[in-house]
Amino acid sequence: MSLRLSTVILPVRRWHEGGRDQWLRAEELGFHAAYTYDHLAWRSFRDGPWFGAVPTLTAAAAATERIRLGTLVTSPNFRHPVTLAKELIALDDISGGRITLGIGAGGNGFDATTLLKEDQEPWTPRERADRFGEFVPLLDRLLTEDSVTYEGAFYSATEARNIPGCVQRPRLPFAVAATGPRGLRLAARHGQAWVTTGDPKLFEAGTSEQSREAIRGQIDKLDKACADIGRDMAELDKVFLTGFTPDRNRPLESLDAFVDFAGRHAELGFTEIVVHAPIPDSVFAADQAVFEQIATEALAQLR
């Protein structure tokens, strides 16, 4: 499978003040997909504009024609599978079947605390994994069955109707973000793709080589998770969301830097590499001209 290049457009611009133009430009540049984060707020962007993922993707679906669209990623931190399924079916319909759901267990950020009372503690990593383990299979059913009744430890559904279902059959694809054993098993069983950002423990003090070795280890574990259920790992797309390894944003400094970086990761088996659209004065600051050059010229050098 040939390497694909995609982008993430953070929802920080008003739609009529540059937001719409970014999604249109991503399609014009030939990106395979354009994703957005699904958060209530995110890190250094907390005190600035931040718009909802589903409405943003709905507008992007109406404005574009060819590019795939999706979340990278949605989590159970503030989503319920019943209501999320209803929104995804509508979004898949509006887009004409161009939606991918990136989904992960969630983390410790604002998503984990915004809906809590002051005396409540956020979920532990184990609790997040427990919920994720129930969330993904239930969402799978909700997107493939006309009516679902379910009662679990965390989620319930009583005759939840989802007619007519997704445009994409049997449902829109899941890109499951995971590095631990439980999440990798979910990716193996329910995913059409697997997503990683690398090993977060290496971000501050690790090296590029250590990062690639850690990712190689993650892929080996994914392979085992697939083998355990009799699935060929080659059936899964492998998506690398850049910007969170020791390389940080350096691959966007020049076309050559990106080609070298992407080539080394393509050798690990990735089928899709995702770069952040530049945002001035942020952790994702980059030269727009270089970003566009990478979008239009990098893949030819990587084939």
Discrete helix count: 8
Strands side by side in the biggest sheet: 1-2-3-4-7-8-9-10
**Total number of beta strands:** 10
Shape: globular
Structural description of this entry:
This protein is an alpha/beta fold. 39% of the residues lie in helices and 17% in strands. It has an eight-stranded parallel β-barrel, surrounded by five helices. A two-stranded antiparallel ribbon has the order 5-6. Helix 2 packs parallel to helix 3, helix 3 crosses helix 4 and helix 7 crosses helix 8. The model has no long low-confidence stretch (mean pLDDT 97).
Keywords for this entry:
303 residues, alpha/beta, two-stranded antiparallel sheet, 39% helix
Give a summary of the structure in a few sentences.
The chain contains 8 helices and 10 strands. The protein has helices at residues 15-28, 53-63, 81-95, 125-144, 181-190, 208-228, 255-266, 288-302, and strands spanning 4-8, 33-36, 68-74, 99-103, 147-151, 156-161, 174-177, 193-196, 237-241, 272-276.
Secondary structure elements and pairings:
Elements: E1 4-8, H1 15-28, E2 33-36, H2 53-63, E3 68-74, H3 81-95, E4 99-103, H4 125-144, E5 147-151, E6 156-161, E7 174-177, H5 181-190, E8 193-196, H6 208-228, E9 237-241, H7 255-266, E10 272-276, H8 288-302
Parallel strand pairs: 1-2, 1-10, 2-3, 3-4, 4-7, 7-8, 8-9, 9-10
Antiparallel strand pairs: 5-6
Helix pairs in contact: 1-2, 2-3, 3-4, 4-5, 5-6, 7-8
